[in-house]
């Protein structure tokens, strides 16, 4: 996750865009006037007050994963990739194999996997 040490208007505008909120909706979410949001866009170097820094930190922390990806892209940061070591990859493969076996057994027992309803074959 991107961490902002000191928020600026540029960062705040990037977060608003990443959340896909209008100026008015973002202002309401942060508890500020819409004009404050407009000022951040007009003055990207502007540093919000400590109270608003905290509100922006909270908004960033609560943002869904897709919005965090858009936020990083809006700031021009490279996309972060998750790397898995061989042990973790082996565990994931084993779990998928176990799930496939379980689903086969459920189907063989006469249940439909999608709805887990008993089949009409009796």
UniProtKB/TrEMBL annotation:
One function term, GO molecular function aspect: DNA binding
CDD domains: HTH_XRE
Family annotation (InterPro entries): Cro/C1-type_HTH, Lambda_DNA-bd_dom_sf
Name under which the protein is recorded: HTH cro/C1-type domain-containing protein
Organism for this UniProt entry: Kribbella flavida (strain DSM 17836 / JCM 10339 / NBRC 14399)
């Amino acid at each position: 996750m991107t961490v902002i040490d000191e928020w600026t208007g540029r960062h705040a505008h990037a977060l608003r865009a990443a959340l896909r909120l209008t100026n008015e909706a973002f202002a309401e979410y942060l508890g500020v006037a819409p004009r404050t949001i407009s000022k951040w866009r007009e003055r990207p170097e502007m540093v919000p007050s400590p109270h608003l820094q905290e509100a922006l930190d909270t908004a960033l922390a609560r943002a869904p994963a897709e919005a965090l990806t858009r936020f990083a892209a809006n700031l021009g940061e490279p996309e972060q990739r998750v790397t898995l070591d061989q042990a973790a990859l082996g565990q994931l493969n084993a779990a998928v194999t176990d799930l496939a076996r379980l689903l086969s057994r459920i189907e063989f027992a006469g249940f439909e996997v999608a709805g887990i309803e008993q089949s009409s074959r009796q």
